[in-house]
Design goal:
The structure is a homodimer. The first copy, chain A, is about 30% helix and about 30% strand. Chain A has about 350 residues and is α/β, with parallel strands linked by helices. In chain A, the strands form four sheets. The first copy, chain A, has a five-stranded mixed β-barrel. In chain A, strands 14-16-18-19 form a four-stranded mixed beta sheet, covered by helices on one side. In chain A, strands 5-13 form a two-stranded antiparallel ribbon.
Chain lengths: ~350, ~350
């Protein structure tokens, strides 16, 4: 680790019900090889390689995912794992990691269930963000919007900052379609990708100002916590008292020091089967197949089977997933409803 | 059996690949409960009930289907089974049955893989056809056309015959869509449903005139055949020499004594998944489900699963079938291509 190292803080939280039935409670989204041969978690770790100037990763996860995390860290003896005693959203998770680092360490907070096609662009943006973080900014990655998406928050770009970024003029909640199209046409807006850089001390200071309850209990949970090999276990009773809140609501939207770097890096949150199909690409007809399948007169069809042969005739823009005792057939447009299906809700 | 009995001759031939993967070589279409709780074969037998004036059935089938036939005859001790040593199409199959009956017996030839919703209408038509058969006519059932179907041959109705039927003016091969619409608009045309009535002797006489090769070898195959309980096994070497041909081509289109009765009886050949869905009906949205399933924003969707749960979102007019190690997803319009799929072709 050098003085200028960036400390990756990898968050392994949610269950990814919108990728059901492939993603299940016992086999959640970050730990599946959804795009390529590595899992999304493994790709996240690999993007923050030590030879690219990153320190060893700190993974924040819950007991439910711990076995997956430790297996997929593949014997990285420098990696550290913070095991949340309960789920209290991202502000608290990041606070735990910040409290385990020196105050002047620059953290790079990365979700573990996104896909980034261009690792070099990610690393360039990370270095720019770290540079701003060292100046005291709390930095969001502003993902170049490739369409009028309504599933993400947006960052409105403000004044340029010496050193390569911008102030954030405004955080915008998920817009409707018309507003998203306005943002795209206007320029100066970017998707909020949930990737952040800041000094550990800066983050904790801002958290103490804007959410003292979270800051105090997180600090106490760490103070009363215990180490167990590479794992750190915060105190459960203290941590349980935290009012869970996202880092966006708790800190980023309140701080006067919000900055952003722009990142055009083939990012996707793999938020549903349609997004996964887009990230995977397709053949000349837009079809993409995993497992045994025969497609006749099909376009933009995604088939994924863990065993049975899937035969599809005459369909466009559909997704067919066969996984164990579940079969999902949905239009691409309907993919956003998958998380609400009975099977996904009652795993 | 009374003098006026009608002898049902039930043909159990084809494999029904267009209903793959539910219908398979080892579990063919006639022996599946596709509409209601009885199989199509069981329904065919039940329609020709003895208390409605029918004699015990004669079933003509091959060795591949024999076990299914005997199981689904459910201990009918009067039923007889003719076991074809090889498949030689319908003219030969019917000849075998005719040769096992008295010359003046009226035969009613019934495919075993069709569905008829209105049994009473079927029986009324059968009695009318038998009445014409006793006058020496070879009688086809003219199914009331409910749409401009292109998958069936048509019968053009000719002059009325004393006793309730018509001469057949012309047999028409499967028409294209435009001609089918003309037929429907013109009236006087009906679908050729493959159901026939004639005296055994009349049929054999006509066969001898128009296809002496089939008639001679069938007669020899029966003469050299052997009985085994309720089964009759024609001689394999004689039967193998027959040039297989359909009864339509071999006899019906050539005889000067072709007649027809009109039958409006909710008939379907269950020729593919679309036809099966139509025969089954649906709920208010046109959906029909067998097995565990959840449908969201779907119309006219047919789901059939032998186990796995099927979740469908946002689709109209599709069929989803899960059967063993095969999953089929097709548009209703694409259903006609199912038989050409690799899975269906290489069972």
């Amino acid at each position: 680790m050098t003085e200028s190292s960036i400390h990756p803080v990898i968050l392994c939280g949610g269950s990814g019900t919108r990728l059901w039935p492939r993603s299940r409670a016992v086999r959640p989204k970050p730990f599946l090889p959804l795009v390529g041969e590595l899992t999304l978690f493994e790709q996240t770790v690999a993007r923050c390689a030590r030879d690219a100037g990153f320190a060893a990763p700190i993974v924040v996860t819950g007991t439910a995912h711990l076995a997956h995390v430790e297996q997929q860290l593949s014997g990285d003896t420098e990696a550290r794992v913070i095991v949340e005693p309960s789920a209290r959203n991202t502000a608290a998770a990041i606070a735990l990691a910040a409290l385990r680092l020196p105050a002047d360490a620059v953290m790079l907070v990365c979700p573990s269930d996104h896909h980034i096609a261009d690792s070099a662009a990610f690393q360039t943006a990370a270095r720019a963000a770290a540079s701003l973080a060292r100046q005291g900014w709390l930095v969001s990655f502003g993902i170049e919007a490739t369409g009028p998406a309504t599933g993400f928050g947006y960052l409105q770009q403000g004044a340029a900052i010496n050193g390569g970024g911008y102030q954030v003029a405004r955080f915008v909640e998920k817009p409707d379609r018309a507003r998203a199209e306005q943002f795209l046409a206007a320029g100066g807006y970017a998707w909020n990708g949930g990737i952040f850089a800041f000094r550990a001390g800066t983050f904790l200071d801002e958290l103490a100002v804007h959410r003292p309850q979270i800051a105090a209990h997180a600090r106490a949970a760490v103070a009363k916590g215990r180490e167990q090999g590479a794992e750190f276990h915060p105190d459960a009773a203290e941590f349980a008292q935290i009012d869970g809140e996202s880092v966006d609501y708790a800190v980023m939207e309140n701080t006067a020091h919000a900055a952003m770097v722009r990142a055009d890096m083939g990012w996707s949150d793999i938020g549903n089967w349609e997004a996964l199909h887009t990230a995977r690409g397709g053949d000349k007809l837009g079809n993409f197949v995993i497992g045994p399948a025969e497609l006749v007169n099909c376009r933009n069809v995604l088939v994924e089977s863990d065993g049975p042969r899937v035969s599809v005739i005459g369909l466009d823009d559909v997704v067919v997933v066969v996984d164990g005792n579940e079969v999902l057939v949905t239009t691409r447009a309907g993919a956003q409803l998958v998380g609400k299906l009975g099977g996904a809700a009652n795993q």
